[in-house]
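Q: I'm writing up a methods section and want to include an example of the input and output format. Could you take the sequence below and give the corresponding predicted structure tokens, formatted cleanly so I can copy it straight into the document?
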Amino acid sequence: MNDISPSPAELTVLKHLWAVGPQSARETHKAVADAMGWSPSTTRTVLTRMVQKGLVDKADSHGLAVFEAKVRKVDLIGRMIREFTEDVLELRGPLPATAFTNSDLLSDDEANALMKLLDEESSA
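A: Here is the clean output for your methods example:
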């Protein structure tokens, strides 16, 4: 897994791509522009930077560049949570399972997979 953490702007793009799947730069822009206040060129710049960082894959589909999240949602979120709890909160050990219930970002299966991943990391 790529160990590069996304910026808040990149995380916004990743959340969108995780939710809908592969998208063109134009489709991505339409989805995130209002929230981010970006121009189309800014969206393309962010996507290009994300490809360079290994967060997103770029493919050609019928002459159109299509972007897809390269990092798995559960893996990235798990790493970010573990880094935050250890580095900021100085918390070691397992997290309570209720921490991820009712998440709009994670399905029940993803929340369960995340808890399993975090439990495995805390046992290591």
